[in-house]
Design a protein that fits this description.
By secondary structure, this protein is of the alpha/beta class. It is 39% helix and 19% strand. Strand 12 and strand 13 form a beta hairpin. Bound molecules: NADP nicotinamide-adenine-dinucleotide phosphate. It is an enzyme of class 1 (oxidoreductase).
Length: 305
């Protein structure tokens, strides 16, 4: 498993991380522990959580099955600031309380990384800065980032937070790649040319902010998996041909497509299937050619200008 340097070497993470949003779908604690062990065996020592996943149960079950020895060999990231059905909340009080809750459920003294889950338009950046300072000083959080933010939102936060934002977690897959479409279609008067996110990909590269790709096998907003899906015949035909060429699974090709981008994007995969997780990791061993990367991009229905 190859690593990615976050924040110019502040922290090293595997280029594939395991998302824990769905782990409560596993019926037993043994099954969750077994999934974690499989991931660790494959070099995935990075686990992505959020206070809201399964209403907190995802963190809880994870904490139940990890002892101190195992925890010290892993990197745990969690998120806060979504209050389901209510609002987004970047207040100092909410951020700190949320981290306290995550630490308790995860049964750990510290988070390696904390992300602000979705932009809060009512944010006061001074409050976020205050929360980050306190959490860092107390040793409860080592590093910080955001999720689903555009460049100016990150600029605003970084102005007050002493450039602590090292990560932006964004939805990104072959079938959901708005963050690259606009850059390929600059000044073209079609839908793909519409710059919806302010050039977030280029901004992150410029500022050394690592992008993490969430839902790397999904299309739409949780509409489903594009692999083996009859809605994407050409894409699957192309993926299957490359899977055969490289002797890996179709999931591995989907991840290899993300890892091939020179932005050094970390893929956060959400599988709860041990075999699939092991298969996905083979993506780290292959490098798609430039021609294959663009062929997949177009097979997903995109056109080059
Ligand atoms: N920041 C945010 O706003 C945000 C939002 C959503 C998610 N996330 C993070 O991103 C992580 C990944 O998200 P995700 O779980 O939506 O991503 P995903 O990895 O794209 O999807 C995982 C799901 O797809 C299924 N799947 C994968 N390959 C399949 C195949 N070939 N055939 C059938 N089913 C297949 C998996 O089933 P199996 O379990 O059977 O493999 C699992 O249910 C989450 O765990 C979370 O940590 C962040």
């Amino acid at each position: 498993m190859k690593n990615i340097n976050i924040g110019n070497g502040k922290i090293q993470v595997p280029e594939i991380g395991l998302g824990c949003m769905r782990i409560t779908e596993l019926k037993t604690k043994e099954a969750v522990r077994s999934l974690i062990d499989t991931a660790m065996d494959q070099g995935i020592n990075f686990f992505d959580h959020a206070d809201i996943y399964a209403g907190g149960s995802a963190e809880e079950i994870f904490g139940d099955v990890t002892d101190a020895g195992l925890r010290n060999r892993m990197l745990i990231q969690s998120k806060c600031a979504i209050r389901p059905g209510c609002c987004f909340d970047f207040s100092k009080e909410h951020i700190i309380n949320s981290v306290e809750g995550s630490l308790k459920r995860l049964k750990t003294d510290y988070l390696d990384i904390l992300l602000l889950h979705r932009p809060d338009t009512l944010m006061e950046p001074e409050e976020v800065a205050g929360a980050f300072q306190e959490l860092e000083k107390s040793g409860k959080v080592r590093y910080f980032g955001v999720s689903n933010e555009n460049p100016y939102q990150m600029e605003l936060l970084n102005k007050y937070c002493d450039n602590k934002i090292l990560i932006n977690q964004l939805q990104f897959s072959i079938a959901h790649c708005g963050i690259i479409d606009a850059g390929i279609n600059v000044n073209i008067h079609n839908d793909a040319g519409t710059n919806r996110d302010g050039g977030v990909l280029e901004y992150c590269r410029l500022k050394d902010i690592t992008i993490q790709a969430w839902s790397p096998f999904q299309y739409g907003m949780f509409e489903g998996v594009f692999l083996n899906n009859e809605k994407f015949p050409l894409l699957n035909k192309t993926i299957d041909r490359l899977a055969e060429k490289y002797q890996v699974s179709n999931n591995a090709i989907a991840i290899a497509w993300i890892l091939r981008h020179p932005a050094r994007i970390q893929a956060i995969v959400g599988s709860t299937n041990k075999q699939r997780v092991a298969d996905i990791c083979k993506a780290s061993d292959i490098t798609l050619t430039r021609e294959e990367w663009y062929e997949l991009y177009m097979a997903a229905g995109r056109q080059l200008p």
